[in-house]
Amino acid sequence: MRTKGASTKKECWSVKITQGDIVLCDNTYTTLRKAGEDLGLSYSQICELGPNGRNKKKSIRFKFMPTIVIEKIGPIKLDKEYVDYQEKKEDPDYTTDDN
Questions:
Q1: Contact assessment for residue 25 and residue 15, using Cβ atoms and an 8 Å cutoff
Q2: Residue 23 in contact with residue 16, Cβ under 8 Å?
Q3: For residues 62 and 83, what is the distance between their CA atoms, to the nearest angstrom?
Q4: Residue 37 clears pLDDT 90, i.e. is over it
Q5: Where are the alpha helices (DSSP H) in the chain?
């Protein structure tokens, strides 16, 4: 968990709210606190809706309830060729064929 007032710009949380086929919200946020502010929820409410929320299993289900999916965005998986190229570029003995 970040310290209060941390100024990160990395998108860490994906929030998607759907009602049937209609997408009501599909945004990414840097913190859960900012997601809660945007949706009009308190921090504790947004945490309970999150992936490890304590009310996930016993929440009320009814016909018109929206589907709320909050996921933590993991590190981007880079393909092996790109990683190998970056490692070669950082090698001081590496020269390109363009020169």
A1: yes
A2: yes
A3: 48
A4: yes
A5: 32-39, 43-49, 80-90
